[in-house]
Design a protein that fits this description.
Structural class: alpha/beta
Shape: globular
Strand content: 15-25%
Number of domains: 1
Number of strands: 7
Largest sheet: 7 strands, mixed
Distance between the termini: 47 Å
Order of helices and strands: HEEHEHEHEHEEH
CATH architecture: 3-Layer(aba) Sandwich
Strand order of the largest sheet: 2-1-5-4-3-6-7
Length: 173
């Protein structure tokens, strides 16, 4: 059974390649409001509200406390001041429950930015970031411009590439 599950997960990551990404630069970003945790404190995160102060990096990741997801969260926490200097906010989105994200937001995100619970994967689906077959987000990141449109897309399974690419993208805006 574990072998079958591993095969399904592996196939899902392969199928979630850039060729399948539906949202393109210039597309209207789907609006959302989700429960999110920042440094263990739960509140609502509204994309519409966040865009009032500048662009928003919306990054989807598969599962809290896994190797690549912990690495990526740590990289965002280290670089958060650089995003802020560019007037950009960051929010991570996964299908993890809010209780898990309360701990993840403190541990791996170091309390620096919100991570949102999309337990139904409806937001991930609207951004074409949901993995096929399983109820998990893939690793894809977007910069949503202040105008509510997709300004940049980074679709890569390599967690280490997202923060540098997104910093460059918000620096160019």
């Amino acid at each position: 059974m574990k072998t079958v599950f591993a095969a399904v997960i592996a196939a899902s990551f392969v199928l979630a390649s850039p060729a399948f990404a539906a949202l393109k630069v210039g597309d209207k970003a789907p609006d959302f409001t989700l429960k999110a945790a920042t440094n263990g404190v739960v509140s609502d995160f509204s994309l519409k509200q966040a865009l009032k102060s500048g662009p928003v990096v919306v990054y989807f990741y598969p599962k809290a406390f896994t190797g690549g997801c912990s690495l990526e969260a740590h990289q965002f926490s280290v670089a958060i001041d650089k995003f802020a200097a560019r007037k950009a906010r960051v929010v991570g989105v996964s299908t993890d429950d809010i209780e898990t994200l309360k701990t993840f937001s403190t541990a791996d995100c170091q309390g620096k930015f919100p991570v949102a619970a999309d337990t139904s994967a409806s937001v991930a689906s609207s951004y074409d970031a949901k993995l096929p077959v399983v109820n998990m987000a893939g690793r894809v990141s977007y910069v949503v411009g202040k105008d509510g449109r997709i300004a940049f897309v980074h679709d890569s399974g390599d967690a280490a590439t997202h923060v540098p690419a997104l910093l460059a993208a918000v620096g160019a805006k």
